[in-house]
Amino acid sequence: MQNVGPVRWYLLAVFGLLSAIECIVYFTFSSTPAASITWLGSDEADEHTIDLLLSWGSIFFLVAAPPTAWLCSRPNGLRYTLIIGSFLSLLSCLIRLIPVFFSTLLMPYAIYFAHTGQIINALCGPAVMSTVSLLSSLWFPQNERVSATMIAWISNGAGFAIGFLIGPILAPSGDAFPRLLICESLLTVIPFVCILVYFPGAPKG
Asked: Who's near 145: CB < 8 A, 6+ residues apart?
């Protein structure tokens, strides 16, 4: 395998960051359910709503997995997959923010924006969970692939832990819930920009 130098660690870090953030967004409403229900404010919002918002991740993972696998098999497939995945995660957060900035008109419909945002973020799931071994096999020599795969994989699990920590801290009540949504939106910008600027699909040569 061609020596790709330290760039492989940058790519792994960006990938891990995207994976963790995707999971943080996935767990937004479950991390602080009481505040979530208060903020959603609809008569339809209850514990079952929070469960459904979480379940979209698994449901739409199945929808997105086949096209993700196909895209990964194409030239520069890893790059295109991660560009699309990071964009979807960013887009999902922006959609969830719409009722925050247009509260007078759209706050009664916040629950629908929440569902839409969670579904779109779910489509990013295969991009970060099904490409772990592809990343390590393309960019790491054989003696480093197990470590690279492990780091990339546990990044998603780290998102679970971080999400449950920051939810109650940033949104202890319904009034503070928009702060959590805004912070998560800002986080999704970082991997999207990094991947867009520099994330080759494979080493040259």
From this structure: 136, 137
